[in-house]
Amino acid sequence: MSTVLVAHPSPDLYGSDRMLLESVDGLREAGHRVVVTVPRPGPLLAELAARGVRTAVIDVPVLRKSLLSPPGLLRFAAGTLRALPAVFGLLRRERPAAVYVNTVTIPLWFAAARLTGRPVLGHVHEAEEGVPRPVRAALALPLLLAATVVVNSRASGAALDVVPGLRRKVRLLYNGVPGPAADLPAPAGTARLVLVGRLSPRKGTDVAVDAVALLRAEGRDVTLDLAGSVFPGYEWYEERLRAQVAAHGLGDAVRFLGFVSSVWEAHAAGDVVLVPSRVEPFGNTAVEGQLAGRPVVVSGTQGLVEIVEHGKTGLVVPPGDPAALAGALRTLLDDPAYAAELAAAGREEARRRFDPARYRAEMAEAVAALAR
User: Which PANTHER family does the UniProt entry name for this protein (predicted)?
Assistant: First the structure.
């Protein structure tokens, strides 16, 4: 039985974290012993423990936008140096047949694996836009150390074109997204909107709030559930959102639920699922909305347009446009039969294209090619 060491940047249970669990399940089904390392404790560890997976918490710094400044990069470099003994110690103890790095934001693991002679698979869930080309190239450079680079969408793959030579290593593997244990009840028709995901400018949470304000100004009794929390360091964004809600007089219409352990409970309470992201390399939340049997409205950006076909499996609107989002919601709320038609087609397509068993088998195959 060969060991696969998986390095992951988060201990939480959002989209990429849930995909990690699918990857781990696929590796274990293929007969591998799996060890997962994360930078700090969190709810993901309990899910891994329930699977009998060994975990190691090592405070490896994660490269986020908030660190892309001279002081931030100095902190990142200092944290990397502090983490080196623990990283190399884990590699020496476990002697993995392969190292699977589940992001581009923890570059130390690519370098450490190669320095200890371990083959590396990089799994890219990011597709940065709106940052200078040199920064995007710097983020992608560690992938040159990987033998194989798996991307979760064509958008993620295209973002790697900033580094010559990476394309030949790239393999497209769409996420496999598990659905609810049983079909959810039909929407209650209460005009409740649901947005599951981090509270983040990237996720367009503010756009959803503005769209609700527009609809309520028309006299529509629309409400919005925000199921998610902020990344550490982004508390300012939640404060800004709450101020935005108060300024629109939406205190009774917008609920901040925080992190929810079951996305299906959140979706069961809603009629329409929103994914108004400005940047979204894939969009697990859109697929989950489809699997929940709800009509979805997404931004026409990156991986979301690879998931949703406008007018057939959901509605697509321009990113960052509250009026367009409100217009799409108006269409669904005014025509329940059309909303139900989109929801049914979306669920069927999501089950076909984003099957977890297919994903687990293909991911295990990609890792096995390195571990031989």
Answer: D-INOSITOL 3-PHOSPHATE GLYCOSYLTRANSFERASE, GLYCOSYLTRANSFERASE
| Structural domain boundaries in the chain | 3-176+355-371, 192-353
Give the DSSP per-residue string, 286-333: HHHHHHTT--EEEESSTTHHHH--BTTTBEEE-TT-HHHHHHHHHHHH
Question: Whats the size of the chain, residue-wise?
Answer: 372
Given the candidates 3.40.140.10, 3.30.450.70, 3.40.50.2000, 3.90.850.10, the CATH classification of the domain at 192-353 is 3.40.50.2000
Q: What confidence tens digit (pLDDT) does each residue in 191-239 have?
A: 999 999 999 999 999 999 999 999 999 999 999 999 999 888 889 999 9
Return the closest-CA partner of residue 241 out of 192, 279, 208. 208
| DSSP strands (E only) in 148-265 | 148-151, 170-172, 192-196, 223-227, 254-256
Report the predicted TM-score, pTM, of the whole model to 2 decimal places. 0.88
Query: Residue for token digits 């309470």?
Result: 269
**Greatest alpha-carbon span in the chain:** 64
Instruction: Count other C-beta atoms under 10 Å from residue 21's C-beta.
Output: 19
Token readout for 267 is: 């979706």
Q: How far apart are CA 362 and CA 23, in angstroms?
A: 9
Structure tokens at 321: 């446009």
Half-sphere exposure of 61 (CA within 13 A, CB side): 19
Separation CA 84–CA 88 (nearest Å): 6
pLDDT digits (tens, 9 = 90+) for 231-263: 888 899 999 999 999 999 999 999 999 988 889
